[in-house]
TrEMBL record:
Gene3D superfamilies in alphabetical order: Phosphorylase Kinase, domain 1 (3.30.200.20), Transferase(Phosphotransferase) domain 1 (1.10.510.10)
Lineage: Bacteria, Bacillati, Actinomycetota, Actinomycetes, Kitasatosporales
Protein name: Serine/threonine protein kinase
Binding site for ATP: K43
Species this protein is from: Streptomyces kanamyceticus
Keyword Mitochondrion: no
Length: 361
């Protein structure tokens, strides 16, 4: 954590800011303290984004949808104010390193550990999808290895970005190593796109590198579009576990979205148990019809792609911290285990009835 900059606010709503956790294209993330003394993550949106006419409405809708996901597999949304001069979102602070940091410092995980990680992340994605959301920016830096299991973070406000002045018609920007082929082509990307990203994240965990890594961004994109994943290094542990992991990764990384396994089947398959559909209704299982987020800046190298062309048009390499990507998709009858949205359906948003406490001195 870095110290606050001189221009940073001391307070956001009733939350006192303690330091900087990161900064991205949408704004800054701070470590804060709630009035009750709990640590929280405070995301403060840039004012110029909030000036776009549709931004606040979509920001409010997506924050409320993210709140319904709950905190079992994610960082629980606890507060937000889409009407502030600089809109803000507060989530529970999840202590723990990211998957990216652990693999970078300690090396690849054993197959059995990756299988357990895959089961936990697939559960999280199933819960997210059951609430009518698609993450679309799942990557090692967005997975926190908390003491009680992996948490998926940084999601819930991409539709607000879609409506902002940053939208670029006919282009898409994303974290290239973990994008699905349909995202690169700017086709409609839904739940199967998250499954592809899950496969890429787990391949990184198992080998220490992305399954489509290459010397240049153009080569990475071409490999994602046209070549099979490189899974060399998925080894160690018992032979059965390594073989099952390779099979699951290959299925998740299929080029055709329809050939990838339903996310609801994956927790049991990663755990080595037979999967069977649940009797629980799925309020809004996301489909492959969900529109791709046309513009989301990220911390690492990014790719700028022509929306209707499967080839790389321009490559840029900005530096700025990661930002999330998620959208509300259309319902779909896609097969697989059906999961209830953990938070249910709420008629009033988290900020609707909040009486604002006085700000700090």
């Amino acid at each position: 954590m870095d110290a606050l900059d001189p221009d940073d606010p001391q307070w956001v709503g009733p939350y006192r800011l303690e330091g900087r956790l990161g900064e991205g294209g949408m704004g800054s993330v701070f470590l804060g303290t709630s009035p009750g003394g709990r640590q929280v993550a405070v995301k403060l949106i840039r004012r110029e984004l909030a000036a776009a006419p549709q931004f606040r409405e979509r920001f409010a809708r997506e924050v409320e949808a993210a709140r319904r996901v709950g905190g079992f597999h994610t960082a629980q949304v606890v507060d937000a104010d889409p009407e502030a001069a600089s809109p803000w979102l507060v989530t529970a602070f999840i202590p723990g390193p990211t998957l990216h940091d652990v693999v970078t410092s300690d090396g690849a995980l054993a197959p059995d550990a990756v299988l357990r990680l895959g089961a936990g992340l697939a559960e999280g994605l199933a819960a997210i999808h059951a609430c009518g959301l698609v993450h679309r920016d799942l990557k090692p830096g967005n997975v926190i290895l908390a003491p009680d299991g992996p948490r998926i973070i940084d999601f819930g406000i991409a539709r607000a970005v879609d409506a902002s002045s940053l939208t670029a018609t006919g282009t898409v920007i994303g974290t290239y190593s973990y994008m699905s082929p349909e995202q690169i082509r700017a086709d409609r990307a839904g739940a199967p796109s998250d499954v592809f990203s899950l496969g890429s994240v787990l391949a990184f965990a198992a080998t220490g590198r992305g399954p489509f890594d290459a010397p240049t961004l153009i080569e990475v994109v071409q490999r994602i579009l046209d070549q099979p994943p490189v899974l060399d290094g998925v080894e160690g542990g018992d032979g059965e576990g390594a073989g099952r992991l390779r099979t699951l990764l290959s299925e998740c990384l299929a080029k055709d979205p329809g050939a990838r396994p339903p996310v609801g089947d994956l927790p049991a398959r990663f755990a080595g148990r037979p999967s069977s559909p649940s009797s629980l209704p799925s309020p809004s299982s996301p489909s492959s019809e969900a529109p791709v987020d046309p513009r989301v800046p990220v911390r690492d190298h990014t790719v700028l792609l022509a929306a209707q062309q499967p080839r790389l048009a321009t490559v840029t390499a900005p530096t700025g911290p990661r930002t999330p990507r998620m959208t509300a998709p259309r319902p779909s009858p896609r097969a697989g285990t059906r999961v209830e949205c953990p938070g249910g359906r709420s008629s009033s948003p988290v900020w609707a009835s909040r009486r604002r406490p006085p700000r700090g001195p």
